[in-house]
Structures are given as structure tokens and as C-alpha cells.
Amino acid sequence: MGTAQQQDRRVGKKRLLPLITAAAVTFAASVAFVTGAGPAVADPVEECTATKGAIVAVDFTPFGGGVVRGCDTTPATGFELLRDGGFTTEGTQHDGDGFICRIGNASFNSGTRYPTPAAEDCVLTPQATAYWSYWIASPGQKTWSYSPLGAMSRTPGAGDVDAWVFGGTDIGGSTGRPTFTPDEVRAGGGATPGPTEGPTDGPGVPAGEIDVPAAARWVSGQLRDGTHVVDEGAEAPNDFLTTEAAYALAAAGGKGPALDKVTAHLAGRTAAYAYPNGTDAAPDAPAAARLALIAEITEGDPRDFGGHDLLGDLTEHVCPAGPDAGSPTPGCTAKGDFNGATYADGQALAVLALLRGGVRPPAGTVDRLAQLVCQDGSVTSILIRPGENCDGDPMTTGLVAMVLKEAGGQDAVVAGARTYLKKAQLDSGAFPPANGATTGSVAPTAYAAQALRALGDGGAADAAVAWLSREQLDGGGFGFGEGATDPALYATGPAVLAGAGVDLVTLVAKAPEPTDPPTTPPATGGPTPRPTTRPPGIGPDLKKGIAYLTRPSHLHQGRYYQGDEKTGRADFGLTIDGAFALAATGHDDNALRTIVDFLEQGGKDGEGRTLDDWTGLGGSHALGGSMGKAAVLAQVVERDPRDFGGRDLIAGLADAVCAKPSTAPDRSCPAAGAYTYAPSVFAHSLGILAQVRAGEEKAAEAPIAYLAGLQHASGAWPSLIPATGDSEVDSTAMAAMTLDLVPGDAHAAAVDKALAWLASRQLADGGFPGASGNSVNSAGLAVQGLSLDAEKYDAQITRALRFLASQQNEDGGFNVAKEGQRGSDIRASAQAVGGSTGISFGTLTRDLEGTTPNPVPTSSAPVIVTPGDSAGGGVVHADGPGGGGALASTGAQALGLAAAAAVLVLVGRGTVVAARNRRAAAAGGQR
Fold first, then answer.
1. What is the DSSP annotation of 598-649?
2. C-alpha neighbours within 13 Å on the C-beta side of residue 483
3. Burial (CB count <10 Å: 0-12, 13-18, 19+), residue 229
4. Does residue 627 contact residue 573 with C-beta atoms inside 8 Å?
5. More confident residue, 772 or 2
6. pLDDT digit string (tens) for 621-669?
């Protein structure tokens, strides 16, 4: 540890200044970059390199300073990187230290933290136009990305660079990016290290790109009648190579007549190819997996491909034991094998087919892949038995590493495979066919390139593709080995995927972009059917999801989720999210009762705070969204929101309706009809839901009108209040559910238009775009919104449920998004579990009669105390970390954005909503 050495370096037109006093730091047309000395705990900036540690840069330009850098060689989180990088921070009174409201550094103005109290009191979440936004860039990334995770949840990797910028942005970070590039502040103080400076970037070779269209034309030329591959001198189709051709065509050209013809042929060959011993016997696992992947890649149904349920048959034929059990099963090498898999690629493809189809691989099948890893990190191609000789190769290692990364829970194995691949790469950029070989081979190089790109080693992947480009033959195809002159489909297929920058985990044959939804949707009326009952296996395992949410290490003392595990500070918004998920599923009513009792009876967290401190009711900062959320919870469990914890939440909401916009510095009311301190459409909707469920439609007229007026012509709603002009899935789903609850059909057309827009936003894999990428939260909310017209949108809902299932981890929890950091997140899990049920927030109820609150777990720590208890003291942390998504705010906001963090902290992304039950006007609004 020590003080960063002074630097004086030109960075383009910007100057990297040495540490100087604040008086000498001036703001000019160019941005000044200052290497921060920081406190003694900061690592010298020079110790952070492209392969060690991470850099953080904070832009003090709005306050008259420059950009200050810091280094942490061993950052556990983004928050730790900021603090250990030499910066001091301050949170908000409402949300705690995790929501970063002020940042300071000793190198600028004697460490003054900005913004100062005169500009921002840091009582509540700062406004969306003036807060510290959090940006990230990985090694080799030339532009900034808004962090999909909060700083307390994100784990920076070696060579990463974080940036904190004061100002404003919208959901997703499409505005307000840093004015400097990642290269200008990353390790070394300049451009990204070249490919020869470390193993992460791969060997330095001349750049090159594969001519993907030419390769696709060559592949098409190998198809007889445009439908299938036939070996020379044979007449029967080669189904294996036909699937390889299909994968290549999908990667090169997407959906189209050529791919459709091949897919149709394969569907007709399903029985012959995948069921060689008859349809009553176990399928050939590799063949069934390959066909299932064709269905998934082309957006078909792997449960009805050629008339066969490929996924169901794969799951039903997993080896219970190997030959060592005394009663060997034919086709089984060890427990966990798919029957007949024989080789590692067959096992891997079967696991992948299930994952892509939203089906959890049977127990032992993923671990069986991990058992094939050799001591050097490589993966053997043969399904060896435990203890047998293990000798891996790059091709098998690349495929298995990608599948295990997608499966989750095998981080150490994936890291070992990544290390092996980087060491195995030859100076030419190629990969050998086996350990010890010194010449390159096309198929291994193609699979290794796909894996390295998926694992974040873009430089090494580019070097491999460059080598492949030099091996491409004049006709577009590829031979097997280095210098080969005869093209082969087995080599060309994977090379096309590598050249297109895709792999079998992510490949989707993209359809033409959807057209805009109609501006005048068809009128609907009357009650809408409940969500369609789907076959078993569609969607996530909700019982496992609830088990994850109620795990003692997550749900502290069974009462609340923690926002700060050091102080025991509760995240009340997230706690209610978990309660909604419990109410929606009904899988643990006693746990739900325990949470509700804690909240209603004035239970205190580790800092002595209660629900009242979170809602602000009775104080000078009453938060409309928080009051609405608490009131809806009371209504869901059939308790009185007019006397919940001794507070009248419904009256509080009525008092919180703004008569007119407030004037600065008061920012309580953005507009007439808004609620006080409700900065988002999501928060505003919760207030309306609570009032309407309480029969206070008249009192909610102004908020309802205000919400309706925020809808865009497209049918979407913006994320923030005041509106920023963006369109967001989460807010649109929530607003649609809210207006659907309003008595009568006045808003029926608006709801229908919103659902059409939601359907148009669905991604090819069934997910939905959100601030975190292909977002679990957004998919859950979209399911809820589309369930308002479940019959019409059944196909979209089914695909979304499969997507959610694919993001559920072994521990029962869910990833934040398909991309980025893996690992279960509490907030995303609550939304996924509740959203998957398709139950409307407006109709969600759970009768707690006959339930019993769970006792406080036996512990040496003080117990939770509510008024009237005989024990003393408050809650202190006793059970360990609160999960990946325990804190949602700037620096720890689950979706990165400060304004979004306001949504998350105040109203949450994990509310259970959806299921249309439109009320006819004649019904008088009663349910």
C-alpha cells in the first residue's frame, strides 16, 4: 500500500496531471486526469496492470476538478475498489452508505465530498439529473457500459476500469456517459495494452476476418436438393453433418428459406437419427441434443420436433450408475451420463439443449462434465470413469467450458479451462488438435475461439479467428488442418460460427425485425382468461426459488433482507418484494406471515429503523411509492392498510398527491397528479394500485390521469418522472397492470397498446431488454404484463418462462441478466419467482389464517424485537451475506442507474404483478 506516484502524460488532447492542490486544478476545454493519492490504503496506480487489479476513475469536473484515478490490486466489489482506491463516500439517510450520494478524494479540494450539503442534502435518493452514475469497461472494451449490477454486487476483473460520473442519465445509460474513454484511464494511463503484453490478449498476429458469406455459400453447395448432406458414394443422409450445416447457415444468414429447408428435413429425420433403437428406447443423446439445438436456434419447439419431445426424452434417460455399481446399464459409463452419450461433446450438447430449452439438467449431468477435467484444466473428449487417465484437448475444452459457464456453479472449472486454452494457443493464433501437437487445426481453433470470446478473452479469440481467416480456401470452405487444401464440412461449420462471433450457447437464427405495433389496437372488453396452463417443465422451479429466497443466510432472522450486512440495515423494499413472491406462490405461508408481522408490528433492523422510516409517513419526506408498496402488501395478505403498524397508509397516499409542481430547492412534486417523492412510473403505479384496491378511485383520479398521460404513442411508458423520453419494459408492464385495475374500460385501449408494445420487445431467446441487458427482472414483469391477455400472448409468455428457467441457478436463485456476472441475486430472484406465476398485483391475495410466524432462529446474536416484546435490543447481523442483490442503489443498485435505484429502493423491481382481469363498467369496479 502506498501513495500513487505522480505522473505527467499526454493522453490524446487531454493532459494527465500530477497530484496538485485544488487551487491549481482548473477546468478547461480539455479534461484533466489526476492520479489520486488518496489515503494510505490505496494501492499505487502503477501496481494495477492489464492482468492484475482494477482502476477506478472519478470525474470531479462538474465541481471544478479533474478526473482522479485510483487502484486496488485485489478488489472484491466495485464499492471496495472505490473506497480502497483512495476515495471517501457518503450515503443517503434513507438508504444508507450503499447508495453513494457524495464522493471525495484527498487530491482534490482537501478531500471535500461532492456534491456538498448546500447542493444535495442526501436525505433521499438524489434526483435523476444530478447523481453519481456508475460505468464499467472490461479489458479491450473501447466504450463505457452502464453497470448492470450495483457496486456492492459487482466483482471487477483483472484489467477492468470503473468510472463514476456526476450528472444525469436515463434507464440503460443511453445518456450521461463519461466524457473520457476507458483507454484514457485504464491501467498504464493510456491505450489498452497490445496483445503481446499479457496472455489475456493472445499472441500478436496480423489481423484477419473470415469471409462468412463465402463460407456459407460453400456449405449450401454441399447440400443435396438444398436439404441434407450425403457422403461421397453413399445415398443415405449424413444427419450429423446436416446439423453442422444448419448451425453454419443459422450463424451466417439467420432465418431464411435455405435454413428452413434443412430444418424441415431434419425434423422428418428425427426418428431415424435420434431414435435408432426405436422410439420406445432411449434416444441417441448426441443426436437428440443436436436436433433440440436446431429447434431452439430456429425458435422452434424442442418438445415437439418431428413429433418427439427431445428434451423430455433426454431427461428421462440419465444413467443412475456406471458399471462399477454391479448392474451396468447399456450406454452408461458413469452416474450422470446421458444414456449413449459416449463422448464429452455429446454430454455437453445434451446439457446445453436442456439449458436452452429452459429445463434444468437432471442431477449429476453437469457434475459429470466437471469430472472430465484433467489436472491441467483441459477436458478429455471421452467419457472416462473416475480415476482413468485424463488427456484433454482444446476443442473439447472449448465446448465444455462454454456449456459449464452457461450452467453456472462451476466457476473454478471454467477458470481452469480458460487458463488452459490461453496456454495452449500457439504463437500463430491457432490451436493444436491435441496436447503436444505443434501445428494448428481448424475445428479446435474455431471452438477455442468461441470459448475465449465467451469467457472475455477477446484478444486471444481475435488471434484465433485471424489464423482461421488465413486457412480459408478459395471456395469459402476450410480443411481440417494447417495448410489443408481439401475443404470439409466438419471443419467449416464451427469456423463459420467463430467468424460470425457466435457459439452454440448464444446462436439464434434471427428473424426480420418486427414492425411497429398498430397505432389503433383492436378493442377488447370483458374479463380476460387466466394464464394458460402449460405442460410441466415450462418455466422455473418456483419451490427452489422460494427456498433460495427464504434461506437463513438471505432472509435475516426470517424477517428481512439486509441492505448493509455490517450494520444490519434492512432493505425494506426488497423485503416486500420477497413477500410478494411468497404470496404469489403460496409455497411458504409461515415465512410470509413472519415477514408481515415484523413489518406491521414495528420490527426494528440493526440500525433501529422500522417500516415507518422507509415510507417516511408522518415525516417531512413521505414517499408515495413506498407507502403504496407497503399498503399493497397489507391488502395482499388481507390486513388493513388504514391501520398497518398503527399508520393509515391510504390517507397518507391521499395527502401525498401533488396539487402542483414544487419549486427548487423543494423537489418533492414533479407535477400535478404525481405523488411526493415518487421518482418513477413504477413508484407512481404502486400508489395508484393501493388507492384503487382500497376503493379510493376518486382520490386516485389525478394520479391515474397523470399516469395515462405519460404513455408514448408507441404504447410504452418511460422509466422516470419527470419523463426522460425513454421507453422501458418494466415501467410499461407495471403501468398496464395498474390501468387495467381501474374500474371500467376507459383505459382498455391504452392497456392493449402497451401489451402489443411489450410483445414486440421480446428477444429471440424469450427474454426482454432491461437496464441490466437481457434482464431477468424485465422478463418477469413482461410475463406479468402479457398475462393480462394470456390467451393472446400465450406463445410469448411461454418463451419468457423458458428464458427465466434458463437463468435459474443450482441454488434456486436467478441471475440478474443473461449477460455479465453470473450468480444468484435476491432481487432478481424475487421478481422471477413472483412474475412467473402471472398473478396480477391488483388481484394478488394470500389468506394467512391458520399460519404461524416462524420463531427467531437460535443464535448467539440478539434477536429481532418488536414493541411489546420482553427482550431488549435491536437486530444485528448474524447470518452472513444478504445475497448478491441485497442493496439496490448507486454503488449498490441492482440495475446500476441512480434513478433506477430510486425505483428499486422505493418500489423495487421485484414486485409480483400481472394476470388480466378486466372489469366491465357494469360491474361497478367490484371484484
1. HHHTT---TTS--HHHHH-TTSS---HHHHHHHHHHHHHTT--GGGBTTB-H
2. 2
3. buried
4. no
5. 772
6. 899 999 999 999 999 999 999 999 899 999 999 999 999 999 877 888 9
